[in-house]
Amino acid sequence: MSQTVVVKIGTSSLTQGSTGKLALATLSSLVETLAGLRQNGHRLVLVSSGAVGVGCQRLGWSQRPQQLATRQAVAAVGQGRLMRLYDDLFSVLGQPIAQVLLTREDLSERHRYRNILNTLTELLNLGIIPIVNENDTVAVEELRFGDNDTLSALLASLLGADWLILLTDVDRLYATDPRHDPNAQPIALVNRVADLADLGVQVGNAGSGWGTGGMVTKIAAARIATAAGVRTVITEGRQPQNLSKILAGELIGTHFLPQEPPVRARKRWLVHGLVPVGRVVVDAGAAVAIRTQGKSLLAAGIVAIEGEFPAQSAVQVMDESGQEIARGLVNYSSEELQQIRGCHSEAIGERLGYVGPETVIHRDNLGIIDMA
């Protein structure tokens, strides 16, 4: 049975530990496995890190640069070399590929989001394997995904994929870091990401010296993907041949079961695709109405506005304790909201001098944050 699979491989799996040089055996095995899966009818997207690492290798650097501008320059050096290597290896097996470079902004604007979906869908229909990476060369800090775990989860959600498989430097999720705790307990199956706290899972926020992610970002990715109904797996990147076994039903690595029913596509975009430019703080009554009753946000429930933004901007909706409860698109600018906050809908026209929408954020434009 044909399945849509998003595979993410991190820098820690693509490179050799302390040297940062490409692990060619791993790369070759990955390409051979993916080409074989494609020949068997599966639709595949590869999210590949490594541009900065390859660029550092080309320049003879032993450390990943810290400054954004330098990382962007090094990524420009490495991305072309990385894609050339992928193209050479896939060409030997007769498998066409395509390069797709994205920034967070590409997924935050609805029409660009739809264009990405259409392009990726057409590539998959043509039997091509898209190789996706963050466009490090042009992405500014506030519009970065931050790591390819998040990018891969967003793509799996966008495509409605069957699987998201995260290839990393450990064979599965453990309750504690197995690199430092020889008695770390492995976890094979997670019914809900919220269950991890009950399992006593402790994770760090950094991976290898060459990567940008860690187990925290992989769990966050699992939360995004499983909410979209995508089964997610964390497994050993040095053994890419296990991909075939996983798709055949073997319980290799740690499997996160998909949420049933999945969150609707537009709501997923509102929560994970938008890049907020401000905050709206609401009182306890409004917070309950939004979270538990699926209500729209009204001006009467707003107690404070943070930031300056025009109407139709993306904002975070916060409760008075500072917890983000939702994310959405506002019908009013920050200046207008300062004038109408706390007032009833019928008084908006009097406050502003014209009659505007009854809702500050309509429920159709409001995505609830999973606080589990």
Describe the structure.
- The protein folds into two domains: 264 residues, 3-Layer(aba) Sandwich (Carbamate kinase), CATH 3.40.1160; 93 residues, Roll (Archaeosine Trna-guanine Transglycosylase, Chain: A, domain 4).
- An eight-stranded mixed sheet has the order 3-4-2-1-5-9-10-8, with helices on both faces. A five-stranded mixed sheet has the order 12-11-13-14-15, with helices on both faces.
- The protein is 37% helix and 19% strand.
- 43% of the residues are buried.
- About 2% of the residues have low confidence.
- With 372 residues, the chain is α/β, with parallel strands linked by helices.
Q: Give the low-pLDDT segments.
A: 205-213
Got a strand count? 15
Largest sheet: 8 strands, mixed
Strand order of the biggest β-sheet: 3-4-2-1-5-9-10-8
Structural class: alpha/beta
What coarse outline follows from CA principal-axis ratios?
globular
Q: Which band does the percent of strand residues land in? A: 15-25%
Radius of gyration: 22 Å
N-to-C series of helices and strands: EHHEHHEHHEHEEEEHEHEHEHEEEHHE
Whole-number average pLDDT?
A: 89
* Count of the separate structural domains: 2
**Count of runs of 4 or more consecutive helical residues:** 13
CATH superfamily (homologous) name of the largest domain? Acetylglutamate kinase-like
CATH topology of the largest domain: Carbamate kinase
- Please give the CATH architecture of the largest domain: 3-Layer(aba) Sandwich
CATH class of the largest domain: Alpha Beta
Distance linking N and C termini: 34 Å
